[in-house]
Amino acid sequence: MATTDTDLHVITTYDNSETIWKYELPMMARFTLTLPFNAKILCIQTQTKYDVELMNFWVLVDTLVPAVREDRHFLIVGTGEHLPIGTFKYIGTTQMAEGRLVFHIFEILSVVD
Predict the structure, then answer these.
(1) What's the pLDDT score for residue 16?
(2) pLDDT tens digits, residue range 66-90?
(3) Which 3 state secondary structure label does DSSP give 54?
(4) How confident is the model at residue 53 (pLDDT cuts 50, 70, 90)?
(5) Which of 4, 56, 68, 111 keeps 20 to 30 A from 21, CA to CA?
(6) 8 A C-beta contact, residue 88 and residue 109
(7) Contacts (Cβ under 8 Å, ≥6 apart) of 75
(8) Neighbouring C-alpha atoms within 13 Å toward the C-beta of 74
């Protein structure tokens, strides 16, 4: 199992059970991903697949507990858009369409609808 300080991206491994998995993100303002318990999101980037530009998370996963999963909720906000009222954890920023579109991704910790 690994421990991380997500602000510094410091990772300490203890038992050689960690690996990095990729998750394609849906192009929706709000979405839910079912991730392995305690998965650590390392970064978000775009990647082209079949001539379509997609957003992806790369996630550090402890392979000793991949069967234990949790739903995590996310929000994609374009530059200049307002955030809803709530509490969010910033994940990262990515660009699409050769930099003409810039998106900021947050994990939703709580939100007032």
Answers:
(1) 77
(2) 678 999 999 999 999 999 999 999 9
(3) strand
(4) confident
(5) 111
(6) yes
(7) 29, 30, 83, 84, 88, 105, 106, 107, 108, 111
(8) 25
Q: What is the pTM of this model?
A: 0.83
Separation between Cα atoms, residue 103 and residue 5, nearest integer Å: 24
Number of C-beta neighbours around residue 72 at 10 A: 16
DSSP letters, 58-88, are EEEEETTSTTSEEEEEEEEEETTPPPPSEEE
Structure token pair of residue 73: 């909720």
Residue 79 tokens, joined? 């530059």
User: How far apart are the C-alpha atoms of 102 and 81, rounded to whole Å?
Assistant: 11
User: In the 3-class helix/strand/coil scheme, how is 17-45 assigned residue by residue?
Assistant: CEEEEEEECCCCCEEEEEEECCCEEEEEE
- Could you tell me the two tokens for 52? 């379509």
